[in-house]
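dumping this here before i forget
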Amino acid sequence: MNAIEKWNADNAQSLLYKYPLNSRSVVFDIGGYEGAWTSDLLAWNRISCEHCGSRVDPHVHIFEPIRDHYKTCVERFEEYPRVNVWNFGLSGTDYEADITVDEAASCLYGPCPWRKDGPKPKEHVIIRDIDKFMQEQRITNVDLISINIEGEEYDLLRRMGPTGIFSRTQFIQVQFHDFMPNAVERREECRTKLAETHKLRFDYPFVWESWEKI
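structure:
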């Protein structure tokens, strides 16, 4: 059984949003697409806190560089004042690039290999340095960072370690992508660095994995 088959057999999707958050929590949804993960996260946290009789939303920052997806998120969360939607992505440096637009598989490195149903449009997008963004917004600590950015996770994580963001983040979940060059080695490099500050919570290689600060 490969990792995706095990993920499905374990019905593991709910692992992605079942985190112990509260109204003081700060969350980064990096690669927000149309906001489904944030929506699930908020719904689960409201359900888990029903006993207190009040709605408890963490403060969520959604990062989505593609214009139409960004607009979808803005509309989806217009009644959620504690959800901020940003029309740029996060990585290890500031830059601009053309992204291949392909729904949830939109990618800065061309069409994803398993999506071969014709030419895809491109859109010019903005990518920001995660450390600079956090300094500008005066965000020192983050409770949960979720990363699903179609290959850009390697550069993002490589930046987060030396800048101390790992040690200031309670939970980090990431989907690594194996279509990138030297993906196995690059994933292990990121995991080795993560293991200095975090312990593994669950691991479905190149599907999803989650780390908790030691």
